[in-house]
Description:
Elements: H1 3-14, H2 18-37, E1 42-44, E2 48-55, E3 58-61, E4 68-71, E5 74-81, H3 83-86
Antiparallel strand pairs: 1-2, 2-5, 3-4
Helix pairs in contact: 1-2
Amino acid sequence: MNKSELIRAIANNANLTIKQATAAFDGLIDAITDGLKKGDKIQISGFGTYEIKSKDAREGINPKTGEKIKIDASKTPVFKFGKAYKDLF
C-alpha cells in the first residue's frame, strides 16, 4: 500500500473526501515529526510508540579494506509496535 492508497482507505473508513483525508494524514505526519524534533516520545495507545534513539560513537571496520573507522554518535527515529497491536497478528 502506498501513500495515495492509504489516503483513499482513510477517506473510505472515516467517510471523508480525499482532500480531507489528505489534510488529516499530512497533519498527523507533521505532528509526529514536530514532536520527535522536540524530543517528545509519542505513544498511540494500542498501536505503538515513536521516539528518538541515541547511538553512541563507536569503532567500526570498513568491509572493503578491513581498516578501522570511527562512527560518529547519531540520533535516529524509531517506531515500536505496542503489545495490543502485535497480538492482532
